[in-house]
Structures are given as structure tokens and as C-alpha cells.
Amino acid sequence: MHPSCFFMSMQKDYAALQAFGMEGYQQLLGNYVRVNLAFRKKLENTFTNAAVINPCDIGPIIVFRIYENQACWKEEISGMATSEAI
Question: Which branch of life, at top level (predicted)?
Fold first, then answer.
């Protein structure tokens, strides 16, 4: 990341902290995490051919993969999926 991008990001975080206060900012971040986790769960429960491929990352990016029939991400990363399935 370019240093100026990091600086701009920090300015936004500082502005949010100033606007909401410490507890408000913590609540905002907590809600963000709750919504992120709920979206991931809803995505995988609604679409059997979808797989979240970054399940351990609760950051702003949700990476998911859509398969033609059934999701087989676990098999794919373990090397057990066929090239046709992928």
C-alpha cells in the first residue's frame, strides 16, 4: 500500500472516532463484523453452489466462488476435486 493511501485511511478512521466517540466507534465496528458474518452465512445457506473462500477473514472483503452445481471449495483446496468440478 502506498504511504499516502495509509495516511488517508488513518484520517478517515480518526474522523470517525472523533464523530462517534470511542464507544460509538466500537459499536460501529462491532455492527460491521456482525453484518459481515451474517452475510457470509446467508450466502452459503441460500446458494448451495456458493462457497466463501476467505472464511477466517472478517475484513471488508468477502471473497466467494460460484460453482455450476454444488460448491466444492474444501475439496478443491485439498486437491480432491476433479478438474471438471473446478
Answer: Bacteria
Question: Using CB atoms within 10 A of its CB, is residue 30 exposed (0-12), middle (13-18) or buried (19+)?
Answer: exposed
**Calpha distance 61→43 (Å, rounded):** 14
pLDDT tens per residue across span 5-61: 555 566 777 787 788 888 888 888 888 889 999 999 999 999 999 999 998 887 778
Can you tell me whether residue 65 is helix, strand or coil? strand
- Report d(CA 73, CA 66) in Å as an integer: 10
Q: Which residue has the cell 488517508?
A: 8
